[in-house]
Amino acid sequence: MGSVTRGTTHPNRLRRMDRWIAAVHGRELRRAADPLAVDLGYGAAPWTAVELLVRLRAAAPGARVVGVEIEPARVAAARPYAREGLAFRHGGFEVPLPQRPHLIRAANVLRQYDEAEVAGAWERLCARLAPADPATGSRGGLLVEGTCDEIGRRHVWVALGPEGPRTVTFATRLGSLERPSDLAERLPKALIHRNVPGEPVHAFLRDFDRAWAAAAPYASYGARQRWIRAVRTLTADWPVTDGPARWRQGEVTVRWETLAPHA
What Gene Ontology molecular-function terms does this entry list (predicted)? Predict the structure, then answer.
């Protein structure tokens, strides 16, 4: 279920997303009896799936990864890289696995679809996630869907649970950033066409640029200190969900409902 995408990929491209997943979702993976992650639409080469396994196992040693691709030739090309904990399967948004995964990562996939198709894809993928379990405090599986540039310097993703979207994360290599709104070109498909006056994501990036400009004196201490100061200013008006430990990584996470497009 889905369409074949360009499949371009590069080693280490998804490092920012992977580090965030390990930090934020690692506890959920560790508590699962058999933590399963899916790299959906890994592309013409299997590097991102291989790297995801390594990074997840640093946080959850029992994690397994299955790379799922809709193009059969890509699955065949990837299978020589399979090993303990890493497999490759043919499929799409239906995620054809008997077990509900605790993580689905879909990077640079929906960007090549129409905006009108995003909600349906999200719904199908969220329905495949491991369910929440109030008895244990588990919030269930996590879908991470977003877009990055070719070498992973700029990345924006949406995190969704079985109930739907939760947060939006902006992540960047601070040394290459001129202003926060540079990240607009990497907004996921659900938001990229909404970066116009009157839409929440446009207001957020406008306020972020203003906070960045006001934090210019901190640039003498480095781009990281300027970013931290700008994000701290943002917290007065926007529901930032993380703290300095993540800000230092060149990240900021905001609740989805405050950036969600107007109907």
Answer: methyltransferase activity
Indicate the pTM of the whole model.
Answer: 0.95
Long-range contacts of the stretch 16-19 (C-beta < 8 A, 24+): 16/148, 16/152, 16/155, 16/171, 16/172, 16/249, 16/250, 16/251, 17/105, 17/107, 17/144, 17/146, 17/148, 17/155, 17/157, 17/171, 18/51, 18/52, 18/55, 18/56, 18/105, 19/55, 19/249
Strands 251-255, 164-172: pairing is antiparallel
Q: CA-CA distance, 99 to 34, in Å (whole number)?
A: 9
